[in-house]
Amino acid sequence: MPDPNGTIPPAAFVDPQVNLYSADLDASLRFYRGALGFTEIFRLPKEGPPDHVELKLGSFTLGVASFGALQRTHGIPTGRGPPRFEVALRTEDVDGAYGWAVAKGAPSVKPPYDFLGYIHSACVADPDGNRIVFYTQLPVRATPNPAARPTFTNVLYNLYTNDIEKSLQFYRGRLGFTETFRAPQGGPPTHVEMELGQLNLGVSTVEALERDHGLSGGGGPPRGEVVVWVADTDAAFSWMLSHGAPSLSPPHTFAGGALRSAWVGDPDGNPVQLVARSVPP
């Protein structure tokens, strides 16, 4: 709420996670739990078919929510279209991880390859076509073992953007992410990595994605979102709107009144959820 001088105080954003939208939650859970080794930590509702399931891999929290529930509960239209993001998993055995995932039914997007002179990578898709990248630094030292479930040492959620400077202004300046890496080191960046709490977030240009990897990205309905917890959803929503973020869904309660959420858009139209636990009346 505005202070006595009429200004809106800054909001604090904590405990970020990523939510993906799915057309088939059961298929998504088989992939992320069974093939990639995520552990389920929460689901809603607790009985019957879920609308939202949260998973953990190391310190990374991934939510999987149904397209229908998002539109029905929060009024946000979603759907298929070109992927806007990827989940990148670091592993010493990229070739083995790629072989393991393909053997488990994941469609191949790009077999193992080197790029920029220092990264070895491969890419598959989850059941909704979202890209899952396996990567390591060159030189490759591991002997490929596609018969063993891969071990992942880091998770990066990477967004594709048409204007990386606007994205940096939003995620660094508005949400408080701290920059940790950029490439190239000099001149306009094509890829920047940031941290907020346990979440590693990357923003990359659509042009670099096409140039370096031969893949397309951006456009179409959103398939996922960044989620941040706040002390006061209404105040945080007002803060974001006062700094130019468009409203996607105004503050409202859900989950039986336990949570209060709002959604704003980033410069590319990707949803960002602001969520707080409801204060008992």
Description:
With 281 residues, the chain is of the alpha+beta class. It has one domain (14-277): 2,3-Dihydroxybiphenyl 1,2-Dioxygenase, domain 1 (Roll), CATH 3.10.180. Helices cover 21% and strands 40% of the residues. It is built from six helices and 16 strands. An eight-stranded mixed β-sheet has the order 2-3-4-1-13-16-15-14. An eight-stranded mixed β-sheet has the order 6-7-8-5-9-12-11-10. The chain is globular, with a radius of gyration of 19 Å. Residues 1-6 have low confidence and may be disordered.
CATH architecture term: Roll
Say how many strands there are.
16
Low-confidence stretches: 1-6
- Give the percentage of residues in beta strands: 35-45%
Which descriptors apply to this entry?
2,3-Dihydroxybiphenyl 1,2-Dioxygenase, domain 1, 40% strand, 281 residues, alpha+beta, eight-stranded mixed β-sheet, 16 strands, disordered N terminus
Write the layout of secondary structure elements.
Blueprint: E1 14-22, H1 25-35, E2 39-44, E3 52-57, E4 60-66, H2 67-74, E5 85-90, H3 94-103, E6 108-115, E7 119-125, E8 131-137, E9 154-161, H4 164-174, E10 178-183, E11 191-196, E12 199-205, H5 206-213, E13 224-229, H6 233-242, E14 247-254, E15 259-265, E16 271-277
Parallel strand pairs: 1-4, 5-8, 9-12, 13-16
Antiparallel strand pairs: 1-13, 2-3, 3-4, 5-9, 6-7, 7-8, 10-11, 11-12, 14-15, 15-16
